[in-house]
Amino acid sequence: MKVNGKHFRSLWWNAEAEVLEIIDQRALPYEFVTQPVRTVAEFAAAIAEMRVRGAPLIGATAAYGMARAMADDPGDVNMDRTWDILHATRPTAINLRWALDRCREALRPLPESRRAEAALTLAHAIADEDVEINRRIGEHGVTLIREIAARKPEGEPVRLLTHCNAGWIATVDWGTATSPMYQAHDANIPLHVWVDETRPRNQGALTSWELGSHGVPHAYITDNAGGHLMQHGLVDMVITGTDRTTRTGDVCNKIGTYLKALAAHDNGVPFYVALPSPTIDWTVADGVADIPIEDRDAREVSHVQGTTADGGLGHVRVTPEGTDALNPAFDVTPGRLVTGLITERGICDATGEGLARLFPEHARNAETQLESGKPRGS
User: Fold this and answer.
1) Of these residues, 130, 196, 236, 243, which one is catalytic?
2) Could you report the per-residue pLDDT of 321-369, keeping only the tens digit for each?
3) Based on the number of CB atoms within 10 Å of its own CB, is 84 exposed (0-12), middle (13-18) or buried (19 or more)?
4) Any idea where the domains of the chain sit in the sequence?
5) How far lies 92's CA from each of 21, 183, 376, in Å?
C-alpha cells in the first residue's frame, strides 16, 4: 500500500546491506519509522515488542529470522535454537509456528553449504505468497460488499465495522480484513468503516491511519460503541482478521472480537472473518480449550501511548498507582457465531465441513495425523 504516495510493504529485504527492513509499528500512527533487523536476537525482539505484529507478518518476519540464522551458522543446532527463540516470542499466532516449521522442514535435508541461500529464497517466497493470499481474500470479500451495496439506496454507503488492525501493516501487503475494503473503495463502491479503538494498544488507530492514507471514509469509535451502532441499524457487516483458527471454525483474534460477534449475532448483523489459510491450525478442534492465550504486560492496560504537548511520544498512566491489571491479548469466537470465513480459495461456513471443502488436502492430512495418534501441536 502507499504512504505519502510511495508504495511500501510492511517488510522488505535490503539486498545491498543484507538486512531486513521493517516499519516500527510502535511509532504508528504518530511517526513513520523504518529500521533494519540484523541479528536473531533483534528479530525476536521485533516480534515480542510488536514492532512487527499481525499473524501473517509475524510469520514472514520469522522466516527472514531463520534466513539470518542460516547465514550466521547453517548447522542443525543453530537451526533448532533459532526455532526455539523465535517461537517463544508470541504463543498465540499460529503463522509463527507455521513459518518456522516450513523453514526447518525445507532446510533440514539440505547440505549446510546450501542452507543460507535456500532459507533466504524461502523467506522471499513466504512474503510474496502472503501478498497474493491477501489480494485474493479481497477479491472474494468484495463480492459480499457488492451484494450489500446492491440492496441499499443509490449513494448510501455500505457500513462495515472492524476490530483491531487486520490491515496491510499486519501482513506483508493488502491486509486481511482490509483487503475487501480497499478493493471495494477502488471499485467506487460507497463505503464507510467503523474502526474499533481496540484497547489496550489502540490498534484501531493503525487501521484509521491506513484507511485515511488510502482515502477510505471511516470513523474511530470506542470498543463499547459497536453494539449500540448495530442496535440502531448502522452496521451492515462486521469483518475481522484472525490469528489462529481451529479446523472446526473457532476463531482466535484480538481481545474483544468475541463480544463483537455476540452483538452481531443478537442484532442479525453478518459477522465475517478474513482467513488466510496459514492461520488455520489443523491440529486443534476446540479453540476455547486448546488455543494458548498470550498474557501481555499489565502496563499496556494501565498506560496509554500518545503524543505529548511538545509533539513527542509519551505514555500516560490511566489507573491509580499500584492497581493490578490483567492483559489477555486474544479471545476465541466459536464458529457458531461466525457467518462465514473469507479465504483465498473462497468463502465457506465456519465449520469443519466448510474448511474441508476449500482445503481438502489439509483436512485429509489432519485426519491422518489424528488417526495415527501423533501428538497435537500447541
Assistant:
1) 243
2) 999 999 999 999 999 999 999 999 999 999 999 999 999 999 888 888 7
3) exposed
4) 2-129, 136-372
5) 24, 29, 15
For residue 376, pLDDT beyond 80: no
d(CA 28, CA 32): 6
For the record, the C-alpha cell of 283 comes out as 491440529
- The Cα–Cα gap between 185 and 217 comes to 9
243 is catalytic: yes
Whole-model pTM: value is 0.94
Pairing of strands 244-246, 237-240: unpaired
Taking the chain, what is the end-to-end CA distance rounded to the nearest angstrom?
33
CATH top class, domain 2-129: mainly alpha
| Closest among 351, 372, 25 to 210, alpha carbons compared | 25
For the domain covering 136-372, report its CATH number.
Answer: 3.40.50.10470
Q: What is the DSSP letter of 227?
A: H
- Helix ranges, 187-319 (H): 204-214, 226-231, 257-267, 287-290, 299-302
DSSP 8-state assignment for residue 17:
T
Separation of alpha carbons 140 and 151, rounded Å: 18
Instruction: Give yes or no on whether 2-129 and 136-372 have one common fold.
Output: no
Strands (DSSP E) contained in the chain are: 2-3, 6-7, 11-14, 19-23, 34-37, 158-162, 191-196, 218-221, 237-240, 244-246, 251-254, 271-274, 280-281, 303-307, 313-317, 330-333, 340-343, 346-348
Per-residue pLDDT of 126-155, as tens digits, reads 999 999 999 999 999 999 999 999 999 999
Map grid coordinates 474483544 to a residue: 256
Q: Are 66 and 98 in contact (CB under 8 A)?
A: no
Q: Are 259 and 228 in contact (CB under 8 A)?
A: no
- The model's pLDDT over 362-371, given as tens digits with 9 standing for 90+, comes to 988 888 877 7
* 46: helix, strand or coil: helix
Query: Of 71, 54, 85, whose CA–CA distance to 20 is shortest?
Result: 71
C-alpha to C-alpha distance for 197 and 224, rounded to whole angstroms: 9
> DSSP class of residue 140?
H
